Amino acid sequence: MSESIQILIPSDAIRKRVEELAAQISADYAGRELKLLGVLKGCFVFMADLARAITVPMTCDFMGLQSYGDATHTSGIVQITKDLTDSITGKHVLIVEDIVDTGLTIRYLLQNIQNRLPASVKICTLLYKPESDQAKIALDYVGFRIPQRFVIGYGLDYMGRYRNFPHIGAMYLDGTIV
Ligand code: IMP
Ligand code: MG
Questions:
Q1: Residue 53 and residue 138: Cα distance in Å, rounded?
Q2: Which ligand is nearest to the CA of 45?
């Protein structure tokens, strides 16, 4: 099967938007300590850039989640592959996601995090596909709204690959839009 990519969001536009998000987050959390909670694996590129642009005191932790399904469609059944290292009880948690597609993963995660009684919990996602969203969870910080296309790069993968591609690109398989 042949794979090709159309660049949707070039790296310089991503950099500019990540700086804007970090400025907004830093203003909103002024005077508070923040815990960034990254959702692996897809968050790692976005979170590295976002964290370095945030100016309030912060710590990081990570959770590994896997949603079963085929290569380009989620099933909504979520499994924790790595849990948090530290307690988040009483902490101001900001969940950092690469993408909200059907919203089923973030709905599961939000419930799981709320059960641990943080002081507050908000969500920051780089990408959001409003047309696919079934869960309608309120998203506090959104980098880009994108059409219902399968995208790769800047941490996002197709079958494990392309996470290192610096831009956000749409995948074509055998010349067909995914
Ligand atoms: P959900 O459909 O919102 O539950 O998203 C589940 C997960 O599927 C996301 O966290 C991503 O890891 C992955 N995903 C959804 N859409 C895309 C995409 O366009 N490219 C790459 N991964 C995606
Ligand atoms: Mg993900």
A1: 24
A2: 2
Q: Which helix (H) or strand (E) holds 79?
A: strand 74-82
Overall pTM surpassing 0.90 (yes/no): yes
**Residues pairing with 4 in the sheet:** 172
> For residue range 98-154, what is the model confidence (pLDDT) as tens digits?
999 999 999 999 999 999 999 999 999 999 999 998 999 999 999 999 999 999 999
To the query of whether residue 101 is one of the catalytic residues in this protein, the response is: yes
Helix (H) or strand (E) segment spanning residue 17? helix 11-28
The residue annotated as part of the active site, out of 49, 101, 140, 157, is: 101
Q: Which residues surround ligand 1 with Cβ inside 6 Å?
A: 42, 67, 74, 98-106, 150-152, 156
- Residue minimizing CA distance to atom 17 of ligand 1: 150
In the chain, how many H helices and how many E strands? 3, 10
Does the structure show a pLDDT above 70 at 47?
A: yes
Ligand nearest to C-alpha 108: 1
CA-closest residue to ligand 1 atom 20: 151
- Taking alpha carbons only, the member of 54, 30, 33 closest to residue 124 is 54
